[in-house]
Design goal:
Elements (H helix, E strand, L loop, with lengths): L3 H25 L3 H25 L3 H15 L5 H33 L2 H11 L5 E8 L2 E9 L4 E7 L13 H10 L3 E3 L4 E7 L7 H14 L9 E5 L1
Antiparallel strand pairs: 1-2, 1-6, 2-3, 3-5, 4-5
Helix pairs in contact: 1-2, 3-4, 4-7
Amino acid sequence: MKSDLDLIIEFYEEEKRALEQGIKEALAERDYEEVYYRGEALNSVEGQLHRMNSLKDPLYEKKMQISRLTESAEGMGIDDRLKEYFMEAIMQTIANKERSLEELLERKAELIDTQELDDALFWLYEQKCRAFGFCFPHRDGSLCLLFELTAQKVLLISVDVKDITSDYDPEDLEEKQIHLFENLGFRYDHQKGSLVYKYDMNNFKGAWDIKIMLSRIVYDIGYFGQDKQGTIEFYD
């Protein structure tokens, strides 16, 4: 039986194929206005499809990067000598990315797919604790997410902005990191200096959606360390 997410992905894939066919037909008829509008719709559908696939597989974007590099290497229409040089460089890049992907896949299960996280969320839902922190290794320290529940059963997952950047990496800009978290649904609270993710826990039955979001922090944004194990600390 297909999941709801799989059905949504299938819907967008069918919509994408229909729009692509419509663009071909409009081009054949030289109806460029129709090409424009269908192209705009196609961009929107592709964006939704990318988001849905990323929810299903946190490593989707990294796999797509490898696919795009491979297609670029195969389609290079340049001088044979230059092509050989660039092909070697591209294939090395692909090999490096594949190794990185394999390492991420090896780490994937142990950090997020733990019963402890499920238990902690149910404890919070049942008000057996006031809050809990979920921390996992990152760079020379750790990244900690605070989980709290409001009286309206809204789960608040927050992270301090100062913890998501590195003083040692000049390219690790605060604005860039904030944007990456905002892409996952976090909102920047300027007064508190933290990023907050809200999740409605009314009629809560499972932690799957939350685990998907957490896995994207770990594997999409790249917050992980050599030590795979995350830790949970409860606050009364």
